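Troubleshooting log. The previous structure file for this entry was overwritten by mistake, so regenerating from the original sequence record. Sequence copied from the archived sheet and checked twice against the printout by T.R.
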Amino acid sequence: MEMNGIPEPVKHRASMNPRQNSSRRRPGVKLFWRKWMVVVTWGIIAAGVSMAVLPETMNRFFSLLFFFIPDHYISFGEPASGYITFAHGMLGSATAGWGIAMLGVLYGSFREGSRKAWQAIAYSVAVWFTLNTAVSFVYGLWQNAILNLIIAELYVIPLFATFRQFFGKSEASATQSRKKSQ
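Regenerated output below.
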């Protein structure tokens, strides 16, 4: 396009990338933290798939985690141990599905700096952690609560590290002010 008879200079191909020039993208969203969560999420997916397709291996892992004996779940008898295998398969399927949804957010709108993407990850981790940990304590399985704490930390650290990039300093201080006044 010409302006006042002077042709516009040709842009370098790299600068024509729409993702780089998107007005929706928030500058400063740390690539490191997004990639960190992507790696953690692939681990969550792998664990879920393992629970569904390698049930004996995962049953031994959880038996070792909860009872400190790898094959303790077998001592419950056939109907119970079969149900445990089934429940682990269903839980693994749901976990893998949650991970795939999280990857969609991380590769999509989180990358572009969407506040709703940040919130979606934060809320889903918070709900999972709260419910799963509460159930773990109710049934005396503190080992699972510790595992939950480790996994949650792998999301909480990057969420805290990126909060201001998604919400800015003014919103962060406004949130703190509201909490103080309540």
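The two ends are 56 Å apart (CA to CA). Archived copy saved in two places this time.
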